[in-house]
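Running this now, will post back.
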Amino acid sequence: KIAAPSNLHKTNWDDQLLFVTFNYNTSIHSSTKHIPFEMMYGRSPILPFDHQDTNVTLSYDTEHVKKLNQFLSNLDKQAKCNIIKHQEQYKQHYNRNRSNPVYNIGDLVLVKTLNIRYKFDLRYEGPFKIIKTNYGKNIYHSTC
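Update: finished.
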């Protein structure tokens, strides 16, 4: 999204950040089903092409503050429900093709290496032979 409004050589992308973030914050998000600007400020954004009165007066109305707080609270609840629903959908999509492998004593396995620092570091160690299993918890004891 940042590269699209940039010039041909992509040298002015940082000048476009203001417009890109405004576009992002005034668009409906798929997970919350709401506009982030509205969730933050409790009102729809005033877009550049919207007509504005030059005579703007500010006043403090306690009833408006109560309604605004209630509106923001409802928006927050709706967004949380939508996020939870989307997380469940993502979880089901992820788990659709995932299998929980069952290892038996005597099987040879590779163990994923943590904290890989360089491109050519080994990603797996082993093979290791399983000598003890703890079914249900996916904990395996092995030797080289």
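The mean pLDDT is 80. More later if anyone needs it.
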